[in-house]
Automatic annotation (TrEMBL):
<dbReference type="InterPro" id="IPR035709">
    <property type="entry name" value="YoaB-like"/>
</dbReference>
<dbReference type="Pfam" id="PF01042">
    <property type="entry name" value="Ribonuc_L-PSP"/>
</dbReference>
<protein>
    <submittedName>
        <fullName>Enamine deaminase RidA, house cleaning of reactive enamine intermediates, YjgF/YER057c/UK114 family</fullName>
    </submittedName>
</protein>
<dbReference type="InterPro" id="IPR006175">
    <property type="entry name" value="YjgF/YER057c/UK114"/>
</dbReference>
<dbReference type="InterPro" id="IPR035959">
    <property type="entry name" value="RutC-like_sf"/>
</dbReference>
Length: 115
């Protein structure tokens, strides 16, 4: 079985497709100046783009892991997530508080989806 990699960098690939499954590297906002709601919106938009590039969409997400800098921002994150998630297609999900690689980063998400 072949493995397809998109947007390959030295340390990671943004998208890996294997055996009908798409794996996304941690997705971030494009601009870290925004609050949790803005960074969440941008992150979800980037997930949509990467899934589309791999031949999938948010209705086919199997699992989603959210890393949030501060659980005090959980409600703001969920407000954006709830508006985005496909009706009737909520994936298995985990949300954990984590120290981010840069202080400005408020949220990062990893996705596994079916093609």
């Amino acid at each position: 079985m072949s493995i397809q990699r998109l947007h390959v960098a030295k340390r990671y690939s943004e998208v890996v497709i294997h055996n009908g499954t798409i794996y996304l590297a941690g997705q971030l906002a494009d601009d870290f100046d925004g609050d949790i709601r803005e960074q969440t919106r941008q992150t979800l938009t980037n997930i949509d783009k990467m899934l589309a590039e791999g031949g999938s969409d948010k209705s086919k997400i199997l699992s989603l892991t959210i890393f949030i800098k501060d659980m005090a921002d959980y409600d703001g994150l969920n407000a954006e997530y709830d508006a985005w998630v496909a009706d009737g297609h909520a994936p298995a999900r985990a949300c954990v508080e984590a120290k981010m690689y840069k202080p400005e980063v408020l949220v990062e998400m990893c996705v596994v989806a079916a093609v």
